[in-house]
Amino acid sequence: MNTNELLARLTAQLKQLEQEVLQHDANLPKREQKLLQDADRFNNELFIQSGAKLAPCIAQIDNSIKQLAKLIKSKISNNTIALSCERIQDRFTAVRRALNTTNLGVKSAAQQKAFRIATAKKRRNKVHDESGFNWIAAGVMHNSHQLYEELNKHLNWVSTFEQKILNLQSELENCHSADKIRMQNEILLVHRRLGKCRQAISYIEDRIQAFERPFSQTYKSFKR
């Protein structure tokens, strides 16, 4: 086979692969594109590409064939031509493999995402369990709306406890001496509940900030 036939065969092979890749990319659901948006599907020595779509690979193979044509015109050795063709064929093989394994890649990415979410949830639950605020349901920590509801609930409790302390202190001033110790203990107990409630408010506010921080960063990046 002469060099012209070689280049013609490689070009034809690329055209056929390009049609398959264009159809592949056009049929990709948005969910699959999102799952694979950061995936590196090839060895960096073959392609500079990431994500679900394979069209960038076609352009890179096309450049390789054009470079081979320039090398042939410069009268390079047959050994160099053979090595260049081998590299191009490796790229063809890699793209065809990627065409046939997109579904596997999506499944793997979905499993990895689910694992990351489960691990993060487990870590948050562990932190919550060790926080000492076990009366707050762990599920609340994963929902912004529920966090705000919990915050409002605790703020109401603070007001209730503060009012109760004022009432008890008023009663203490007028109660019989035999009841003073009981009243003082009751006031102390409400103070403890008030203190714990205020700590919980700080804890919930921290969780709200941690929950909303990624959305805030996304908004700031968008504004730039």
How would you characterize the overall build of this protein?
There is one protein chain. The protein is mostly helical and 224 residues long. It is 79% helix and 0% strand. It has helices at residues 3-26, 30-35, 55-73, 78-129, 144-174, 180-223. α1 (3-26) packs antiparallel against α3 (55-73), α1 (3-26) packs parallel to α4 and α5 (144-174) runs antiparallel to α6 (180-223). The longest helix has 52 residues, at 78-129. The radius of gyration is 33 Å and the shape is rod-shaped. The protein starts with a helix and ends with a helix.
Intertermini distance = 56 Å
Q: Give the strand content.
A: under 5%
What is the element string, with H for helices and E for strands? HHHHHH
As a whole number of angstroms, the C-alpha radius of gyration is: 33 Å
Overall residue-averaged pLDDT value: 81
Most strands sheet: none
Summarize the topology.
Layout: H1 3-26, H2 30-35, H3 55-73, H4 78-129, H5 144-174, H6 180-223
Helix pairs in contact: 1-3, 1-4, 3-4, 5-6
Short structural description:
This protein is 79% helix and 0% strand. The chain has 224 residues and is mainly α. Helix 1 (3-26) packs antiparallel against helix 3, helix 1 (3-26) runs parallel beside helix 4 (78-129) and helix 3 (55-73) packs antiparallel against helix 4.
Quick tags:
rod-shaped; mainly alpha; 224 residues; disordered C terminus
